[in-house]
Amino acid sequence: MKLLPLLFLAVAVPGTVFPTLQAAPTMEADVIVYGATPGGFCAAIGAAREGAKVILLEPTAHVGGVNTGGLSFSDSNQTVRSTLKGLFEEWHLRVEKDYKDRGTTLKYDVMVKDHSVWTYEPSVAARVTHQMLKEAGVQVLTKRQLQKVHKNGAAIRELTTSDGTFKGKTYIDATYEGDLMAAAGVAWTIGREGRKAYGESLAGKQYPKAKMPISGLNDQGKPLPLVTTTDAGPEDEGDKNVMVYSFRLCLTGNPANRVPFPEPVNYDPARFEVVRRYFQATMNAPLLWDLYPLPGEKFDANNGIGKQFSMGLVGACNGWSEASPAEREKIWEAHKQYTLELYKFLTTDPAVPEAHRRQLAELGLCKDEFADYGHWSPQLYVREGRRMKGMYCLTQADIQEKPAKDDAIAVSSFPIDSHDCQRVALPDGGVINEGTIFPVRLEGRRHGPAFHIPYRSILPQKAECTNLLVPVALSCTHVAISSIRVEPTWMTIGHSAGVAAALVARSQSPAQDLPYAQLRERLLAQGQALDLPILPPLPPAPMVPVSIDPATLPGVVLDDSQAELTGTWDRSSSFKPHVGRGYLHDNRRGDGQSTAVFRVKLSKTGRYDVRMAYSPHATRATKVPVIIKSGGAETRLTVDETQPLDPGGAFRSVGQVDLTGDGTQETTITISNTQTEGFVILDAIQLLEASKK
Question: How far is CA 220 from CA 212, 318, 431, 433, 589, in A?
Answer without folding.
Answer: 20, 26, 17, 22, 35
